[in-house]
Amino acid sequence: MSSTTKTKTFQSVAALLETRHAAGVSLSSLIRQLNKIQDIWATVVSAELAEHSRPTFYANGRLTISADSPVWANSVRHNQTSLVRLLRQHGLPAVTALQIRVLPADQQRRRVPVRRMDPSSGTQQLLQSAAAGIQDVDLRTALIKLSKIRG
Predict the structure, then answer these.
(1) What is the C-alpha separation between 56 and 100, in angstroms, rounded?
(2) Which contacts (CB < 8 Å, 24+ apart) does range 128-134 have?
(3) In which region does residue 61 sit, left (phi positive, over 0), alpha (psi from -120 to 50) or beta (all else)?
(4) pLDDT averaged over consecutive 10-residue blocks of the chain (151 residues)?
(5) CA dihedral over 2, 101, 31, 18, signed as positive or negative
(6) Closest by alpha carbon to 55, among 39, 43, 77, 70?
(7) Which pLDDT value is given to residue 53?
């Protein structure tokens, strides 16, 4: 990131804080407000959507939502009307609109592929012996199946 970009970002934040301070709004109250909004967001949307999007700014009835990919941003856009209604019902009556943004690539969450490991022979034997003592047929079958999984 260039020093010009850093300066512009810093000036934008400084200008925002100065404007808010002049209006009698403290930084701590802004942080509390955003934390409350983020908590409400997490209860209103699905766990999967909450993992990939979050409220990042609120002013004048407009709530900015940052999504970590265009796909998740589109999901928020698609559900915008119902999300605004739910946010209003759950304690944010002043929210009138959502502004959706996609995070820059360097800020997006990276999914690390899960490497599937074969169960060791000891783990396989343990699962099979545990299954032998279980009365529930479905659970016993599932454990036996799990003991035989090979990546």
Answers:
(1) 10
(2) none
(3) left
(4) 49 61 67 87 92 90 92 94 95 93 71 63 84 85 79 51
(5) positive
(6) 39
(7) 92
CATH H-level, domain 11-107: superfamily: DnaA, N-terminal domain (3.30.300.180)
| Three-state DSSP class for residue 102 | strand
Q: In the structure encoding, which two tokens stand for residue 8, read together? A: 């512009």
What 8-state DSSP symbol labels residue 136?
A: -
Domain positions in the chain: 11-107, 113-151
Amino acid occupying residue 105 = A
User: What are the Cα distances from residue 86, in Å, to 41, 54, 82, 117?
Assistant: 9, 15, 6, 42
